[in-house]
Request: fold
Amino acid sequence: MEIADIVSPEAVFTDIKATSKKQVLQELSRRAAAHINCDEREILNVLIERERLGTTGVGQGIAIPHGKLESLKTVQGFFAKLETAVDYDSMDDMPVDLIFLLLAPAEGGADHLKALARVSRTLRNAERCERIRGTENTDALFAILTDDALAA
Reply:
């Protein structure tokens, strides 16, 4: 599974303005709902439930919120580069500015885990994250995210 299999150029955002983790999750839920024709509240509830189990702020300014939805047929990804980093209760207590939202079908256990692993490997690459943080163009961000030459 490649990043390009789960995120499209239209699902990459650089214009999210938020001052808290909750606002980020609300805005991403709204945008994801419009993109996949799903209920915004359902997405937000799934994400909040997952956060109650433990933070999805993995460190180094990165968060990978994720959850499963009954209404989905395939894994869907959404990437956001925040204008200003927010407190996300991350494992390293650092604010988050790069967020990869991952939504999977309720019955998609293996695919969900494969996608989570792929996203984690992709964002663990320091050079890739540095390049992402250095651009504001969504097409460029998509290209950097999906560039296999930057494999971790």
Remarks:
- The chain has one domain: 3-147.
